Amino acid sequence: MNICPRCGSQHTEQVAASPVAGVWTVHMCSTCIFTWRSTEPEHITNPDKYLPAFKVDQADIPKAAHVPPIPARRV
Amino acid sequence: MAYQDFRDFLNTLEKEGQLLKVEEQVNLEPDISAATRALNNLGDKSPALLFNNINGYEKDQARIAMNVIGSWPNHALMMGMPKNTPLKEQFFEFAHRYDQFPMPVQREETAPFHEVELTENINLFELLPLFRLNQGDGGFYIDKACVISRDQDDPEHFGKQNVGIYRLQVKGKDRLGIQPVPQHDIAVHLRQAEERGQNLPVVIALGCEPVITTAAATPLKYDQSEYEMAGAIQGQPYRIVKAKDADLDIPWGAEVVLEGEILCGEREFEGPFGEFTGHYSGGRSMPVIQINRVYHRQNPIFEHLYIGMPWTETDYMIGVNTSVPLYQQLKEAFPNEVVAVNAMYTHGLVAIISTKRRYGGFAKAVGMRALTTPHGLGYCKVVIVVDEDVDPFNLPQVMWAISTKLHPKHDAVIIPDLSVLPLDPGSDPAGITHKMILDATTPLAPEQRGHYSQPLDSPPGVDQWEKKIINLLNRQQS
Ligand SMILES: [Zn+2]
């Protein structure tokens, strides 16, 4: 749960745990903002088996288009 | 007749047999999405679903409502009509109430959601039973909440306050991503704030009664108030209450309210998210909302919306309320001819217009007009025009008209390179597409082609019998 299944980043943290203790935990990657629950199937939680079509290359993240674009400051 | 709040509407659904309570224990993934998808596959009269036994919570500690407006009976009940009201009748009633706009609002000082208030240690992942809707989604989304913001250049203008539904990705304990497409009203507000170097205050209301959700999903003009439209639709002033951190108005009956601000100049990786087109969109950087204050009712019900390949709840939610503005705009040009408009297919990417004609070629002109309406600029990729006696909501009838009235050489008109919403996966480049008008009306002089002089008519008394049979069926069911 320490490696992001989607982009492979090690910058992840646990953001929630089930109110009934020990059932599940929720994790988030601060690099690609992927979020997953520990009880989801391996093609969601396991970096080696994550859905190939939805893998994210960390190098692409800064290149993502801005929607909407940031406008110039009005003076 | 107006529903007080979300729970009031759920009670009505239950009384009418349109709420299915799922008592067995379910997992957040994939059970809730799978159950809702399955429900949508079963047809257009589905009930809403209420889950109260969720793995990881004590029973009744978390409750999730799905598919609340996701069928024609539920849509009829939203308008306070009998649940088996035919769709065409729902359309004409909606058009009638739309004409009653604006209905002044009713202001309140307090609301049920004030019961619990938090300004510190906010953790959305603990406050709400969030879950993944579709497998490729980049996270847990909120996709049926009313997002409220004000015009920054004209903040006093009540009508320019916007209530809209936008996809919100939960991106941290007190952070959300938002998708304000440039065509959306909130994008105007955000641009104004960012040009000033300021954050844009927003309020997010979850679990509202269904009329404001419907108004928020209706393509209104920029300066038309969704609250005044909600009042018109429910035939009673809409109740609102002020936010605490900004001059924003909140639906009184909400289950959960988040107050915050869109951070000026910030964009962050977002998505993908399975969209109403039946395809994912994502891999772009979008604005971020910082949440500063949360209120909720005791033991709130989390209302969520499954979105996927049509039809899902989205299509019921934006079917009639997309068709009516297009109908009204066409009526402005052709008041005596246009009969009804069905723009329910993927938010009106396909639209069907029923119209009378004055002379040959007229139906094609009506189709062209649809392309140039405000909604048509982003939708109406295929416009099918049928005669006035064809019910555009009755697809077998529409297919009959295409089967017998349409001559591809004369009646299929393609106009190249027009604008369309960029989410249309077929557009190339994104946002540009050819569009097509299919004229499936009967040729009229000076057009002489075809053999249409002996149309079949109905036996006398069919209309009366239709009403009589509906009444008999109602009596049998009650
Ligand atoms: Zn990641």
Summarize the SSE layout with pairings.
The complex is a heterodimer of chains A (about 80) and B (about 475).
Chain A: E1 12-17, E2 25-29, E3 35-37, H1 42-45
Antiparallel strand pairs in A: 1-2, 2-3
Chain B: H1 6-15, E1 19-22, H2 31-41, E2 48-51, E3 63-66, H3 72-78, H4 87-98, E4 106-108, E5 116-118, H5 124-127, E6 141-142, E7 146-149, E8 162-165, E9 168-172, E10 175-178, H6 185-196, E11 200-206, H7 210-216, H8 226-234, E12 239-242, E13 249-251, E14 256-262, E15 268-270, E16 273-274, E17 280-281, E18 284-286, E19 288-296, E20 301-304, H9 313-317, H10 320-333, E21 338-345, E22 350-355, H11 362-371, E23 382-387, H12 395-405, H13 408-411, E24 412-419, E25 432-440, H14 462-477
Parallel strand pairs in B: 1-2, 3-20, 4-12, 22-23, 23-25
Antiparallel strand pairs in B: 2-3, 5-19, 6-9, 7-8, 7-11, 9-10, 10-19, 11-14, 12-13, 14-19, 15-18, 16-17, 21-22, 24-25
Helix pairs in contact in B: 4-10, 7-8
Bound molecules: zinc ion.
Overview of the structural elements:
The complex is a heterodimer of chains A (75) and B (478). With 75 residues, chain A is mainly beta. Chain A is built from one helix and three strands, in the order E-E-E-H. Chain A has a three-stranded antiparallel sheet with strand order 1-2-3, with no helix packed on it. The longest helix of chain A is centred in the middle third of the chain and has 4 residues. Chain A is extended. In chain B, strand 16 and strand 17 form a beta hairpin. The model of chain B has no long low-confidence stretch (mean pLDDT 96). With 478 residues, chain B is α+β, with helices and mostly antiparallel strands. In chain B, strands 5, 6, 7, 8, 9, 10, 11, 14 and 19 form a nine-stranded antiparallel sheet that branches. Chain B contains 14 helices and 25 strands. Chain B folds into two domains: 311 residues, Electron Transport, Fmn-binding Protein, Chain A (Pnp Oxidase, Chain A); 132 residues, UbiD C-terminal domain-like. The complex binds zinc ion. The site of zinc ion has 8 residues of chain A, from loops.
